[in-house]
Amino acid sequence: MTRTEGRTLAFELLYSLEIQKVNDSEKKEQIELFLKENEVQEEKVIKYVKETISGIAKKEEKITKMISKNLKEKWNISRISKVNLVLLKLGIYEIIETKLPYKVVVNEVVELAKKYGDDNSSSFVNGILANIIKQQGLE
Predict the structure, then answer these.
(1) What is the spatial distance between Cα 15 and Cα 137, in angstroms, rounded to a whole number?
(2) How do residues 116-136 score in pLDDT, each as one tens digit?
(3) Residue 132, Cα to own-chain centre: how many angstroms?
(4) Whole-angstrom distance, CA of residue 97 vs CA of residue 102
(5) 34: which residues sit within 8 A by CB, 6+ positions away?
(6) Nearest CA-CA partner of 11 in 120, 129, 71, 93
(7) Which of 28, 30, 78, 100 is deepest in the core (most CB within 10 A)?
(8) How far apart are alpha carbons 49 and 31 in whole angstroms?
(9) Entry pTM
(10) Can you tell me the distance from the alpha carbon of 77 to that of 83, in angstroms, rounded to the nearest whole number?
């Protein structure tokens, strides 16, 4: 399984957890169930998915503030579709917390936005992530 496929799984799991409003005590069980249902057996993919879900949960407040700060005036985070919100959380987490090149992360998250989001998702997600990259001085 490629990193791209692993990222897609992480997105799908994050989206599921977001929609279900799973609390922390149920999260571990939901992660295990998701991995089993998707027949994920590669240790590196399991590790990536678990670390990503856990990392986003730990940095949730910081990530949410970064998203809110980059929305247009009079917009708030509740107006963002769940798909876009989860994609932004995934992208921001990987950009600021991992050693992955930001261009790779942005490209793959934008591709996920094209696949799972609406017609405007890819440009919306790309714009927010580009702003955050500039703010973080990663260019």
Answers:
(1) 29
(2) 999 999 999 999 999 999 988
(3) 14
(4) 11
(5) 9, 12, 13, 16
(6) 93
(7) 30
(8) 9
(9) 0.91
(10) 12
